[in-house]
Amino acid sequence: MTAPRILAIDQGTTSTRAVMFDAQGSPLAISQLALRQVYPADGWVEHDPEEIWAATLTVCRAVIDKTGGSVGIAALGITNQRETTALWNRRTGLPLMNAIVWQDRRGAPLCAALRDAGHAGAIQNKTGLLIDSYFSATKLQWMLDNIAGARAAADKGELAFGTIDTFLLWRLTGGRVHATDATNASRTMLYDIHAGRWDDALFALFNVPKSVLPEVRDTAGDFGTTAPALFGAAIPITALVGDQQGALVGQACFEPGMVKSTYGTGCFVLVNTGARPLPSRNRLLTTIAYQLNGQTTYALEGSIFNAGTVIQWLRDNAKMIGSAAESEQLAMALDAADGTGRVCFVPAFTGLGAPHWNPDARGAILGLTRDSGIAHIVRAGLESVCYQTYDLLAALRQDGIAPPPALRVDGGMSANNWLLQFLADITGIPVERPVVSETTVLGAAFLAALGCGLFSSLDEIKNAWRMDFRAEPCMPTARRETLLKGWRDAVNCVMR
Ligand code: ADP
Predict the structure, then answer these.
(1) Whose CA is nearest to atom 7 of ligand 1?
(2) Ligand 1 geometric centre to CA of 409 (Å)
(3) What is the mean pLDDT of the segment spanning 298-311?
(4) Residue 136's closest CA among 93, 173, 165?
(5) Of the candidates 183, 210, 212, 211, the residue with the CA atom closest to the CA atom of residue 199
(6) For residue 255, how far is its CA from the centre of ligand 1 (angstroms)?
(7) Substitution candidate for ligand 1 out of 261, 413, 436, 441 with most atoms within 8 A of CB
(8) N or C: which end of the chain has fewer CB within 10 A?
(9) Ligand 1 mean position, distance from CA 169 (Å)
(10) Distances from the Cα of 341 to the Cαs of 253, 368, 369, 391, in angstroms?
(11) What separation in Å is there between the alpha carbon of 352 and the centre of ligand 1?
(12) CA-to-CA distance for 193 and 186, rounded, in angstroms?
């Protein structure tokens, strides 16, 4: 008998991946395909759902073949880019247009109109979200208003809406299951996160008919099985989870107050707030962390627009480094050679996110002296990611969240040990990186193991989490205060 394996799909913004895990959460095989970005107009971003589907089949088949075939796969879990919106015909299964991606701004005028009409407070109270075209509601509204015949077809019950988890589930089950999970539902702006159901008043505000919506289920549980023709066996689909929530689970942040911080292109900080949906007074989002056995666990979420993009800018635009990893060597060498000379880099390329929320701010490099060089600017770029995390944690504190016992980090930038040490020093909080830094897809696999009964409780996920690197805060307080003041002064310089 072969040992059980778990298949996890990570359908992200820039790629589609499949990872096969063993029952202990160790990766056995990985396959990945890049995803084409479609930019039909300024501020618009689309993905072709058929390309996503074809890529999903290809990467899944690749890891199934590499690990001994489809017999013995105990479960399949899906984690996905959140909010991205698809609309398809229930009879043919064909999308009516490309999916509108979370970054797409075309719903902004609809959001502005709702804000002007005074609906922001009520929407935030129900959904935990700040009115923005980032979420699914205005993307769906735009589709219904702009695709010829769509609204009439929706009113007749002929159309199905879904975020990418739902679209893949529909296709994987051969059109038999139209469902999502609570984490994905909580990002649509149509879902009441307190009552745990779609909300009629929100449907009316966004002019969306109820008939298009999927059923909302627990994050781990029965979502049907894959159509046998796809992979040669009917694999149980037992978890759907939004990507940031997947990372929270992959980081085993199950106690209230535990925090994970993902450093990829941007940075997403999520804190588990337990059974309490904490409202934010500092423009953070209240969201669903996971829903298991009908019990909802909530999270507060804050995001930094520019994290890895700072390194990309240093490499591709400024040409100050040849590779991302070089940033670590430069910062380490400079620390060894340098006294106190400090440059400050505010990477407000696209404005500043939480908690500053200034879309008009633009980036700056300040404090240059005659001795400043490339290394100073690169080190300042790494530091900026840590200062921004400090600001997010300060906003969380103002919302009543105590400093966490540790910051569990993941994402591409978390490979940089210098960055993690500076992060610990500036935040005053120990920073921990796990052995499996692909926490998003690991979270989906763990939840699928829970959903199929291979794991019996979250404790098994907690026990499977392994630490690879830990940075303890060791910077003297006075030094930290000086650096933080330098950052605050620099931020004030770029605010418009
Ligand atoms: P995403 O999932 O958002 O595409 P990843 O989690 O793959 O991003 O992280 C990629 C980002 O991490 C890139 O912006 C890259 O510049 C940055 N990065 C990768 N390695 C390092 C490193 N050693 N030091 C600093 N940044 C790094």
Answers:
(1) 412
(2) 12
(3) 92
(4) 165
(5) 210
(6) 28
(7) 413
(8) N
(9) 29
(10) 38, 9, 8, 23
(11) 19
(12) 6
Which atom of ligand 1 is the closest one to the Cα of 411?
6
- Vertex 468: Cα angle to 413 and 308 (nearest 5): 5
Cα-to-centroid distance, 310 and ligand 1 (Å): 10
Relative to the CA of 412, which ligand 1 atom is closest? 9
Residue showing tokens 């698809």: 86
- Kindly state the average pLDDT of the residues 195-210: 96
* DSSP symbol at 216: E
Q: Is the peptide bond before 256 cis (omega within 30 degrees of 0)?
A: no
pLDDT above 70 coverage of the chain, percent: 99
Predicted confidence (pLDDT) per residue in 320-377, tens digit: 999 999 999 999 999 988 766 789 999 998 788 777 877 788 899 999 999 999 999 9
Q: Give the nearest ligand 1 atom to 308 CA.
A: 14
Q: What is the third-level CATH fold of 5-242?
A: Nucleotidyltransferase; domain 5 (3.30.420)
Torsion, Cα 394 395 398 402, to 10 degrees, reads -60
Question: Is the Cβ–Cβ distance between 184 and 166 less than 8 Å?
Answer: yes
Cα–ligand 1 centroid distance for 252 (angstroms): 22
| Distance set, CA 322 to CA 95, 261, 340 (Å) | 42, 26, 26
Q: Give the domain ranges of the chain.
A: 5-242
Task: Identify residue 452 by its one-letter amino acid code.
Answer: C
Residues contacting ligand 1 via CB (< 6 Å): 14, 264-265, 308, 311-312, 324-325, 327-328, 411-413, 415-416
The per-residue pLDDT for 1 is: 47
